[in-house]
Design a protein that fits this description.
Length: about 280
């Protein structure tokens, strides 16, 4: 009888503890609901996480907290998407205001993504000229192309730009090629901006300087001075690339937010279906 009494007392204490946990968890859940209603989603999530951590045996409250967390997640993603939509509208307006200054080259027969050039650097205006050309894809990926055709092959794979003792130099290109046109040797090498040794940034930083030197680096080097028109073209393409790359990043974030909304919505529907059964 003595042992039975001890068991009854222990069971009563356990039940009292559970009831206490349920009560405290319920109070914390109510505060989370208030935070959610006030659109303080960070605080609401913190309070819900506290329920999970502090009251693991408050099963009914924890179950309700899961549903509230789903609502918080949904609202946060909807809020994020609304913000991204507004930022995209601003970027699109910025693009619309300047894209008329560029030439878009795109053959829809084989190209999904076209490339923008500055008008002074389109191919047909620069036949037989050695220079540094800039382009940016519609998705914001910018690249530079060094084109050499000053006579004889030098097998160049890199370029260097300099002003006085300051300079920037591309790494050796992984995408270079050589051909001939009516017996004239033509060499081209491509450098993706971001892996161009800071050449594009150097030109932007020194755009007001005169006589930016351009050096084609190969078996032997060829030196020339960049015309102001080429400096202007590269600076303009850099500006366009910033807008296009920002828009591409926003698209990725919009896609991610939409996927999260779809996931949370599906989970909420599944929970509602289970409750209805």
């Amino acid at each position: 009888m003595k042992k039975l009494g001890l068991i009854v007392v222990a069971l009563a204490l356990t039940l009292a503890g559970c009831n206490s946990d349920e009560k405290k968890a319920s109070e914390l859940f109510q505060r989370a609901e208030v935070s959610f209603a006030a659109e303080d989603y960070s605080l609401a999530k913190l309070q819900i996480d506290s329920i999970r951590t502090l009251y693991p045996k408050a099963f009914e409250v924890r179950k309700a907290a899961i549903g509230l967390m789903q609502q918080v997640d949904l609202k946060e993603q909807q809020q994020t998407l609304a913000y991204l939509d507004s930022v995209m509208a601003v970027k699109q307006a910025s693009l619309d205001s300047i894209k008329g200054n560029y030439v878009l080259e795109k053959d829809t027969a084989y190209q999904e993504v076209g490339n923008y050039f500055y008008p002074t650097q389109v191919v047909e205006k620069n036949i037989g000229r050695s220079f540094l050309r800039a382009q940016v894809s519609e998705t914001g990926e910018m690249s530079l192309t060094s084109i050499y055709c000053a006579g004889g092959n030098i097998h160049h794979t890199a370029v260097k730009v300099s002003v006085g003792d300051l300079f920037a130099e591309t790494p050796s290109s992984s995408d270079s090629y050589e051909t001939t046109d009516l017996g004239r040797a033509i060499e081209k090498a491509d450098y993706k901006v971001g892996n161009d040794g800071g050449v594009a940034d150097f030109i932007v930083a020194n755009q007001d300087k005169k006589n930016i030197r351009l050096e084609f680096m190969g078996d032997r080097n060829y030196r020339t001075v960049m015309p102001a028109s080429d400096v202007k073209a590269i600076v303009a393409i850099v500006d366009l690339a910033k807008v296009l790359s920002a828009m591409e990043e926003i698209r990725k974030e919009q896609k991610e937010a939409n996927l999260k909304i779809q996931f949370v919505t599906r989970k909420m529907q599944e929970k509602a279906g289970e409750a209805a059964e």
